[in-house]
Every structure is written in structure tokens, then in C-alpha cells.
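#struct-queue
[09:14] JT: dropping the first one here, sequence first, then the C-alpha cells:
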Amino acid sequence: MKASHTRGAVSVRFDDPGLVSHAGLVAVMRLAEDAGLSDLAGELVRLGGSVGANAGAKISTIVAGMAAGADSISDLDLVRHGGMAGLFTGIRAPSTVGTFLRWFSMGHVAQLEKLSARLLARLAELTPLLAGADRLGLLDLDSKISQVYGRGKDGAAFGYTGVLGLNTLAATLTTAAGRPVIVATRLRGGNADTRRAVSSLARRALGTARAAGATGPLLARGDSGFYVGELITMLAREGAWFSITAPQHSAIREAIDAITEHAWQQHTYRDPVLDPHTGQLIHTAQIAETSHTAFTNPTVNPGQKTTARLLVRRTRITTRDEQGELFPAWRYHAVFTNLPPATTRPATTRPATTRPATTRPDTAGFDTATAWRLHDQRSGAIEHVFAELAAGPLAHFPSGLFAANAAWLSLAALTHNLLRATACLAGPTHARTRLTTLRRRLITIAARVTRTARHITLRLPQDWPWATDFTQLFTTIHAPPHPA
């Protein structure tokens, strides 16, 4: 592919008032309007004073900019070009929005979290965003250090990763038929302990998931940083299941050592997993389970004593020196969970001439292999969400004020859920695609705005590869309302 003209035969002019660069925002913001984003923001977010006026318009401007790919306050200006003013009303300037964000306190951020939860519930009613949530919902907890530059940012500190940053704590909800949505976020200082405030966030995440339609069982998953008695007992008390990686302290090692050799069973991975110690892919391992009672110290963990299943995976250490392997050596990984074990129904008595009956597992429970697979899938869900946020609005935190950055995080989560709901209406291909791909194919599309007989038409590029999905998305969202 090469240019079809000489250098002197082409020029540029930014003078067409009828062009827009992000035509897909028409469908995205129409869905946000149907879900009541602006009205909810005006009702729930009350900052006071002239700065806090018209919160609905200002929040809608931020969400539209984030949906289009803005990762800073100044980037929000991309919603104020060409024919955008003819497609949307109430667009606010980046300077106005920046002042609005800097007015936030942590109490106002809590109002944004409530707005995000209410909007998620409405999006779940309008779209198949949480299809299958009546069967099993997977609630994943994780934290991530986002690097920042300059010590002037409130809360920036050196954490366990050794970089200067801010700590994002998040909870996502995944169903069998959908992609993860964000049900709770919290911004913390860069040196925050992983366990800090995780119980309150998990409780809020459970409430948001239930309100959004997750009426089936909920399984909360986390790594060893969330092996906390307060969190685990809270989850059990709220009627949720938990599956938390157990740290290799002495009590866990004793429980593992007590597993008899014949209890181990072969486990083959459908998708190999990476061994963080050796950097090699693990294709097969051995798994077993036992029972373990955790948090038994009444002084350190009052009222948090918990007995549950301990799932254990072991992989062979194959490194040898010049003496060879003297005896088998294993690396262990343990998971503490209260998933109900699979039971077997008694065999049915049949005549001797028929085929012997066999027991079959009770579908209400989870055998060792199934419970282990459920936990193994944890990082694949929430890590993808963190990657999508980092490739979009959380490429960096835009303000020097901690509360403003916390508000930016909350709005980034809200925008993520809005885009996931939009993708559900664009057909099965885009329902599970990454948001960066969705943005490139269905949002960042150049169009010319034309008007005929009080009707607006968006003139889009001919032979656009994803024209069919865009048309489906557009017509679904702009369908006439159902009669009352």
C-alpha cells in the first residue's frame, strides 16, 4: 500500500463543521440516557455550590470522553469538535469538568459508587449484560499498583512492586454467558496493605451484584493477599461461597503433609498455566483435598474460626544437579474454599440381567477438580479488566488530588460497564471482545452529520468491515419504545 499522490498534491484543512470522529458515541450515550445516567447523577451526586451544579451534564461528558478513549482531563475535549454539538447537548469544557472533579471529597466519591451500582442494575435490565447470573456469579477481588510520576500526587507511595504509584482495589462480577463487569472500586495509597478495607468493599460488591440480578450463588475468589478471617467469615455470613489462595504458613503445611499418597489424583490442564517460580508452562499436576480449620487464635481473629475444604495442587520439581534426583520434590499451591463437595446418590437396585448401576455426582456440589478449575480461572477475569482500564481511562491518574483521582477511577468503572452493555447489543462477536477492539471498530468511526426534513443522518465510510454490527447496535438502541 502506497500513497496515490505526490507530496505537493495534498493539503489539509480543519474546517468541516459537519464531521465527527466518534460516531459510535451516539449509540453509547443513547444507552446511557435510557439507563438514566444523567438523571441518576443529578439525584445522587450533590457537591454543593456552583461547581457542583449540573452534575448530570458534567458526568455524562466525562463518561462520553472515556468511552471514546480519553485518559486525561484535557483529552475530554475530543467530544467538542465538528458536528458533536449537533448530536449532543450539555457538553462541558475540560476546564469545567476539571474544576468539578477537584471539588470532590471521599464522601462525594461514595455517591459516585452508588451511582455506578444503580446504573449497572439498570443496564442489566436493558441488555443481556449479566445473562446467567441466576445460576452462578463469580466475584473476583484483586488490587493493582498503577505507576504515577511525581511525588506531588496525593497518596503516591512505593508499594510492594517497588514503583511509585496508587493502589486500586476492585471487585468484578462474571457470569458464564458474559464478560466481567466492575461492581466495586476503591482507590488507596500506593503503600496500602492488600487486606485493608477489603471486607467492606466485598460487602458492597455483594450488594451491588444482588441488586443487578445475580440471584444465584455467588463465589468470591481472591489470591493469598485476601486470606483474611474477617473477609472469609463475612462472605460465609452473607451466604456467599469463597475460594481464596492459602499462604504457605506452618498450619497449611501441616495439613498438606497429612494428605496420604494415594489421595492424589492426576489433573490435566485444558489451557496450560504458568509456573511463577520457574516460568514454565504447567500441563499436568496432581490435586487432592483435605479439611482445614483456619483463624483459630481468638485474640487475633475473634469469632473468625472457620473450617472448610483445603484444595491442594502439587507439581513436580524437575530441576536436577550433577547428582541427579535423589527423591521426588514437589511444589504446592493451596486454596481454602467452602464450595460444597460433590456427593453421590446411592445406586439404584436393578435386576441382575441389566447393566449394573453406577453412582453419579450430585450437580449441587463441586468435586475437587471442578472446584480447582473454578479458582484457576480467577486471574483470567479480573486481570483482563485491569488491562482494559489501563488501555483506556486509567492509563494514568490525571489529577494531583487523591479524591479527584478516586472519582476518576469510579467513573472509569462506570464507563467500563456501559461499554460492556453496549457490546452485548452489537451481536455475539463483539459481546465478548476487548473494549479496545470495540472502541476501534464501533466507536471511533468518522461520520458526516447531514440533516434533511428535520431528520439527522450519519454518513459513515463505505465498506466499513463492521458495518453490520454497527447497524445492529444502532437500530437496537434507537428502536421505538414499547407501548405502555
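[09:21] JT: and here's the second one, same format:
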Amino acid sequence: MSNAFKVFAGFIAGAAVGVAAGYLLNSDKKEEWIESLKDYADEWKEKADEWKEKAKEKAKDWNDKAKRKKAHVNDAIEDAIAG
């Protein structure tokens, strides 16, 4: 794609977003839209929090597993040295 086409496509996309935003902000249902967007954002925040907690749990599990493996390797090395 040429740079001119990218600029033109960006201009068209920006204009479309601007028209949509203008329509929504001047609409009788503006408050409904805003409330709906807030609800949607809250839902995604909750999902993100859930994903964060799951990631923390996985990280803790992997850390615990790595510690156990390290202890096992250290024991094996000590046994090999002791002979």
C-alpha cells in the first residue's frame, strides 16, 4: 500500500469516527449510549481483573514448581558429590 492511500484511508476512518461521535453526542439517546459504554467498560475491567488473578495463580504455581525442581537438582548434585 502506498503512503498516500494509507493517509487517505486514515482520513476516511477518522471522519467516520467523528461523524459517529457527533451523531451519538447529539442524539436523544446520548445518556443511554454513555451508560451502555460504562457498563461495557466495567464488564471488561472485571474480565481483566479475573485474567490478572489467574495469571498470578499460574505464576505462583510455576514458581513453586521451579523451586521444587531446583531442590531436587540440588539434592541430586549433593548425592553425586557425596558419592
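[09:30] RK: nice, looked through the second one.
[09:31] RK: Residues 8 and 14 are 10 Å apart (CA to CA).
[09:31] JT: good to know. The longest helix spans residues 30-82.
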